[in-house]
């Protein structure tokens, strides 16, 4: 199919439209929610905000929240891009298991760490590309296309590790999971860098606009001369890459690859983070930094529940309550109620 | 023959072919014992997959079925062992709770106009969380009724045992086939899956049907929980983890179109049996590890999705 492709570089840089005053940032619902959760944690555990400097790195509950939240934040970065195109990627948890399995198996069989890391990232890219091909070339609904890899992925990961939990003590991989750069844990630094790079890529080039265009209406975007297929391929491949990075971090953290449990149900956390971040599930409106903030909110809630002595499973109840509140707030029903008589043509969104 | 039956026929042929191949390698698989175990071991999956078939036929998806099964097993265990109810009373309570749970999800999907997978995702979290709040540990069930049920079966020729839970599954499939193809509710489901707008314009009660579909799916997941509880004699919040994926896979392999509006409950039965066949084959073979099940099911899922795309792209447009 030969269709005109769009040059991704903008010809003239428009004035950056998102320069808002600082107080606008603090009145965002996500920021208010995060501050509220942190305050609750602080009331439950007075030492929550204490951060100490020890052995050349920062320690403290707040740092711990960031560190534990990093894998989901990284998944959320890729997931945001996918959801912005009106898709969803259910396979990221399984891809995490595959990437961890590849890295651990290679390292424990004597391959040097950089090669193992590259192979793991390559496996993630391949998985993402597979999803992208199913969605674009075969034109399958994203939720179903990625379901294939979600079902088969853990089996593939177990095939790589031959069913056992492969442990390793390679310094490079362990550094990715538990090391520190300039006092901050490595996962936090990786998540930050990835977030900044992705945000710049979508907001400083036309890429973000193109993703939104495909998300709002794929056929219209194609008729406007956009190669929607290529864009979707890039987006799903990027999500696979993010999942591979998260998988490396989790494997490095526990110094082993657990094909059954690495990244289990994290795809759902990632989707939740993206939704909390205000990205519309109907495509077209997205924010990567807000999704990362959503991941941090989820982790802050997890930590709060652990501190308060409830069983970790109680988390699930809280999470479902959060989803329900967001759904009610986002629904056309409540939009109509808030807007009153002015909302004339809302309703039939489907 | 009717060309709309072709995908169903293809699935049935593939199952027969796979079964014959398996029998060719392990002649022991051709016995009523194996068939009886097929039915018993996959009973909970089959019942849950029936509910999933209705949901997918209507164009939605239900991610909460595994969690509802887990929740039901815990609820039943708590009601029998701690409250002291008779198992049958506990089953009735559990089924009612599950149906109400599904009805609330259906109402949320219809009135809040959110994609079904997000609502049922919240339902999944809620059911798993609720189950572990009830009891984080596994509760064993000891009751005369359970021993009586596990001891009663019909002996098939050849020594195979048709257990009570196997019969429950067969009965559910028979009733579901009637419900889908012989009732107004069934036609409404197909209409919704074809196009919600057209269905509404034709006078299908969209709200009532959507709520009933999800209530039915959750009630069947509850029944699957009852069967699971009879099967394992225990209640545990992490029971049936990931069964929703197996159920979706069974529905798709059974030839139901994922966009809704087209498919057969009978196909789902073959889909469940095909998954059971893969598992049994791996047990018989002995050298293959259990993770091959996931890979083979994934490959089958992929094959059938591609097959559907090809069939429906090549064929004339349905109206």
From TrEMBL, chain A:
Sequence intervals crossing the membrane: 31-53, 65-84, 90-117, 172-202, 223-250, 262-283, 290-310, 316-335
Main location: membrane
Source organism of this protein record: Paragemmobacter ruber
Topology relative to the membrane: Multi-pass membrane protein
Matches recorded under Pfam families: BPD_transp_2
tRNA processing keyword on record: no
Compartment(s): Cell membrane
The name this protein goes by in its record: ABC transporter permease
UniProt keyword list: Cell membrane, Membrane, Transmembrane, Transmembrane helix
From TrEMBL, chain B:
Membrane topology category: Multi-pass membrane protein
Compartments where found: Cell membrane
Main location: membrane
Coiled-coil intervals, chain numbering: none
UniProt-listed InterPro entries: ABC_transp_permease
Alphabetical keyword list: Cell membrane, Membrane, Transmembrane, Transmembrane helix
Transmembrane annotation, as ranges: 38-57, 64-83, 89-109, 116-134, 154-180, 211-231, 290-312
Claim: Cell membrane is one of the keywords in the record: yes
PANTHER family: ABC TRANSPORTER PERMEASE PROTEIN YPHD-RELATED-RELATED, INNER MEMBRANE ABC TRANSPORTER PERMEASE PROTEIN YJFF
Name this protein carries in UniProt: Sugar ABC transporter permease YjfF
Species for this entry: Paragemmobacter ruber
Gene from which the chain derives: yjfF
């Amino acid at each position: 199919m030969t269709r005109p492709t769009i040059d991704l570089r903008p010809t003239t840089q428009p004035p950056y439209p998102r320069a808002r005053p600082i107080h606008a940032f603090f009145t965002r619902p996500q920021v208010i929610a995060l501050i509220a959760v942190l305050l609750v944690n602080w009331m439950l555990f007075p030492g929550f905000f204490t951060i100490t400097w020890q052995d050349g790195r920062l320690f403290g509950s707040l740092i711990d929240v960031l560190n534990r939240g990093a894998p989901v934040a990284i998944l959320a970065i890729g997931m945001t891009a996918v959801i912005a195109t009106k898709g969803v990627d259910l396979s990221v948890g399984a891809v995490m298991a595959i990437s961890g399995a590849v890295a651990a198996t290679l390292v424990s069989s004597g391959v040097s760490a950089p090669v193992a890391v590259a192979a793991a990232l390559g496996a993630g890219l391949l998985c993402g590309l597979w999803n992208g091909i199913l969605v674009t070339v075969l034109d399958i609904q994203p939720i179903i296309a990625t379901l294939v890899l979600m079902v088969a992925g853990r089996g593939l990961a177990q095939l790589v590790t031959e069913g056992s939990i492969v442990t390793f003590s390679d310094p490079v991989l362990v550094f990715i999971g538990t090391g520190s750069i300039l006092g901050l844990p490595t996962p936090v630094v990786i998540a930050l860098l990835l977030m900044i790079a992705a945000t710049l890529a979508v907001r400083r080039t036309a890429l973000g606009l193109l993703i939104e265009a495909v998300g709002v209406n794929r056929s219209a975007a194609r008729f406007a001369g956009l190669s929607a297929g290529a864009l979707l391929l890039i987006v799903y491949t990027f999500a696979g890459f993010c999942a591979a990075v998260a998988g490396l971090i989790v494997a490095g953290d526990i110094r082993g690859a657990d094909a059954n449990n690495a990244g289990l149900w994290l795809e759902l956390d990632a989707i939740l983070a993206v939704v909390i971040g205000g990205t519309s599930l109907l495509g077209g409106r997205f924010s990567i930094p807000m999704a990362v903030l959503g991941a941090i909110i989820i982790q802050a809630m997890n930590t709060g529940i652990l501190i308060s002595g409830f069983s970790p499973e109680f988390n699930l109840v809280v999470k479902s309550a959060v989803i329900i509140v967001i759904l009610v707030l986002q629904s056309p029903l409540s939009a109509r109620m808030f807007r009153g008589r002015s909302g004339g043509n809302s309703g039939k969104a489907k | 023959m009717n060309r709309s039956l072709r995908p169903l026929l293809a699935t049935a042929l593939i199952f027969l072919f796979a079964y014959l191949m398996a029998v060719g390698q392990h002649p022991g698989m051709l016995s009523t014992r194996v068939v009886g175990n097929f039915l018993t071991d996959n009973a909970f999956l089959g019942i849950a997959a029936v509910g999933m078939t209705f949901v997918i036929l209507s164009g939605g998806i239900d991610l909460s079925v595994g969690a509802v099964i887990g929740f039901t097993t815990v609820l039943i265990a708590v009601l029998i062992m701690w409250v002291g109810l008779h198992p049958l009373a506990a089953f009735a309570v559990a089924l009612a709770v599950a149906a109400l749970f599904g009805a609330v999800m259906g109402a949320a999907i219809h009135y809040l106009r959110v994609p079904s997978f997000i609502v049922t995702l919240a339902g999944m979290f809620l059911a798993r969380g609720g189950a572990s709040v009830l009891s984080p540990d596994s509760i064993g069930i000891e009751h005369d009724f359970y021993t009586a049920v596990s001891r009663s079966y019909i002996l098939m020729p050849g020594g195979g045992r048709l257990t009570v839970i196997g019969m429950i599954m067969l009965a559910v499939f028979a009733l579901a086939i009637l419900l889908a193809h012989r009732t107004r509710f069934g036609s409404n489901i197909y209409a919704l899956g074809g196009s919600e707008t057209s269905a509404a314009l034709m006078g299908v009660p969209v709200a009532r049907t959507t709520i009933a579909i999800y209530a039915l799916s959750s009630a069947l997941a509850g029944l699957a929980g009852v069967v699971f509880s009879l099967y394992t004699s225990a209640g545990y919040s992490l029971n049936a983890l990931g069964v929703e994926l197996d159920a979706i896979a069974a529905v798709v392999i059974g030839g139901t179109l994922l966009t809704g509006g087209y498919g057969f409950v009978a196909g789902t039965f073959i889909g469940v049996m095909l998954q059971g066949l893969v598992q049994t084959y791996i047990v018989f073979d002995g050298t293959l590890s259990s993770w091959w099940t996931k890979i083979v099911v994934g490959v089958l899922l992929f094959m059938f999705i591609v097959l559907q795309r090809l069939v429906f792209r090549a064929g004339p447009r349905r109206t």
